[in-house]
């Protein structure tokens, strides 16, 4: 969103901005500045416009920009009577989400409120359907962000709103979104239990039962081996002492024997948990370790065939646990193919096409890195190096007016120039939560059933010569589903 200066901003406002643009700004100063900006505005719409215009004058102060945008959104949401007003507030929320990253989930939820109003005001049925899909995706994204922050109550509310919107606008799979709600409720209860175990261990560090329950819940239900390692000590059984630290390591740093031990542990023991969300997460991790084991084996033998058979069994079990993990694409339910929305609106037999929401992977956006697998490090701008001025030499000159500088490796990305996560949770390289899952995904690659993988003479009408069903036409006259219906 681009903001422009307006002649409506009088010289007094410009003078105040000049005083506020540098350094930390007191809350009282911000409040006084906002009062000056909206002094002559008579309606909430005018206040919104003036505050948005003032943002462009505070480019050097992030705190002031966030305060102006937040106040503007507060006034803008009071006047959502037209689509134009909704779009303006939506743009302000988009900018606010980019500025105030720490409260990203909150602004996503606020944006969903505006998008729901746009859906109500829209008259075109195809456009309403498209906006409804966008609304549900946004609410699921907000729920995932709340979950990553540990705010499970807010996540439950976001998933419930997503289910309500999907059912209201008659979207496919809307009734199955209850699985996301149930999973969030279960994780909320587990997080409360983990807090109780942690408090108990502070007063009674030798409580073997509480420590075992804490490590097990963190490792399985929360799928957080790194968090479980901090509670491992000699009180636990020998196997857990040995395997939990290995599970916290990156898969690429494990030997073949370690991968085998972890894979068997996750698949044969941890994946027997009856809770769907836990069972699915343990199966996914087991598949990762088995695939890593295959990559390390040079020759094909009986052991390799056994591992491949186990992976096939894991995939079948995982396929039965759809709509329990928000990481599974809601639109296609993990199948990597989605029904044609145009066919559904017209009430005709629907063709299938490659799911655009998950890009043919069947997976949802990662709640930790938002699907940005290895984004550019913000501290070093992707260079992997930082130029620092030592604290004891700051302000001093060396040589002919030159400032002494020290070039060192960027700590955030460890010299790679790529990170995921923020703050203390930032790690270098590809996101371990979703990066490996995307690479190993083989969904959406079945052969075209019309030409049986040959492509046909010229170009097959179903697969357009690609030989797979990823790009099947969704026109009713040419879709596979339509032809099958006609054959009956």
Helix content: 40-55%
Coarse structural class: mainly alpha
How many discrete structural domains?
A: 4
Name the average pLDDT.
77
Numbering strands along the chain, what is their spatial order in the largest sheet?
Answer: 3-6-7
| Backbone CA Rg | 27 Å
Largest sheet report: 3 strands, antiparallel
Number of helices: 18
Helix and strand sequence = HHHHHHHHHHHHHHHEHEEEEEEHH
- Uncertain segments are 1-15, 17-23, 393-400, 435-445, 469-488
According to DSSP, the number of beta strands is 7
Beta-strand content bin: under 5%
Q: Could you give the distance between the termini?
A: 53 Å
Shape: globular
How would you concisely characterize the structure shown here?
By secondary structure, this protein is mostly helical. The protein has helices at residues 11-20, 27-37, 44-55, 62-76, 83-99, 104-121, 125-148, 152-168, 178-203, 208-219, 225-229, 238-247, 256-268, 276-296, 302-319, 341-346, 435-440, 480-487, and strands at residues 337-339, 352-354, 375-376, 385-388, 406-409, 418-420, 427-428.
Structure description:
This protein is mostly helical and 488 residues long. It is built from 18 helices and 7 strands. The strands form 3 sheets. A 3-stranded antiparallel beta sheet has the order 3-6-7, with no helix packed on it. It has a two-stranded antiparallel sheet with strand order 1-2. Strands 4-5 form a two-stranded antiparallel ribbon. The radius of gyration is 27 Å and the shape is globular. Mean pLDDT is 77; it is low at 1-15, 17-23, 393-400, 435-445 and 469-488.
